[in-house]
Specification:
With about 425 residues, the chain is of the alpha/beta class. Keywords: Signal, Sugar transport, Transport.
Length: about 425
Amino acid sequence: MSIPGPVPRRRFLALGGGLAAAAALTACGSNTGRPSSGGASGGSSGGGPTLTQWYHQYGEDGVEDAVKRYAAAYDKAKIEVVWNVGDYEKAVGAALLTQKKPDVFEYGNGPTLDMISANQVLDLTEQISSAKDDFPASVLAPMTWKDKVWAVPQTIDMQMLYYRKSMLSKAGQQPPQTFDELISVAKAVATKSVGGFFAGNDSGFGVLANLMIWSAGAEQINSSNDGPGFVTSAVAAGLEQYRALKESGGLLGSASGDWSAPDPFVNGECAMMWNGLWNMPIFTSELKDDFGVIPFPKIGSGGRQAVPIGAFASCVTAQGTNPDAAKEFVRWLWVDNTADQLDFSTKYGFHIPARKSLVAKATNLTQGPAKDAVSFVEPLGHGPSQLWTPATSDAFLAAFSNVVLKGADAQKQLASAGETCTKEIKRLTS
């Protein structure tokens, strides 16, 4: 079965891994970042300065019209909305190095540390101050550097483990709370035609890498921000356990869709699947109440359950047309204007409002698995560290796959990835 529907707007925001945190300073070139075709502008007819506001191309119907409607309602500036089609992160990085910068732009989990260090974006601590406590700390963490907040979250997305109640019940199993239990349950429910656990056609390496750190009780970066936080015996043991999961026969290595698609779960190709909040309406429609959700199970005695979370967030360019006016617009839209914030999160796809006080007003999140998912965000949510770069991520992913696929020594692999991490931190902070 192939599930129809638009590509969700934040499906490929690598929650917990961040949007590609590539250095914005390397995105040089003559390209201004404005789309040469397929782009669209629109906005308010208000007085005051004219500001440009950039969005990436969202997949759900109605989003573009909605953000232009929000902009048109602002009366202190004329807001020209630019709808970017194509490689949005590359376009932003290039535009920030030109004279034609966007005044306001969204970016996954806030601006990169390179953008902050190069003074390309402005501190928005004052703009968010009146509502800071109303945003989950786990969501703000990736947008905070040296006690300053550099972006305002627009809406929240997350991932979690889905399970088929009937399949687990038939095998006499309960939803796993620990990684040992995940291995046991996956093996018990797997049959010739149904996989136990599925997390992607790459065996789950890409989407679960950071979970192997967080669920083992570790962090991506150490508390001193000068080295890796993942070079621990607990993380090493977790990677070895994942190898045991793969060797047990309980891990489904490939399916009709990848981890972000609804098809494998809806089609009954697996009893448990790692997936995102965005597919919950499809699961509810197709499976009714025959599914539940849980966080990623804890690894080891010192571990913890965890879920990756992420949010596109609004940033202000430091050298734009009118930075002060841009900051006030961001405050108006993403701090003061709660009606539009609720609209943005609930009317176009399935997402969680960035403000805790608005969650109760999102009626589609007040019961069943959706309510459970929301309850995971504050205590169990993790987002990427500002110091977690693509190079570090790639090094850790290589270590993970080498341990699982090649039987490599986990501690040595982590130590090697840790060296890359330390070099990256020095590059960013020197």
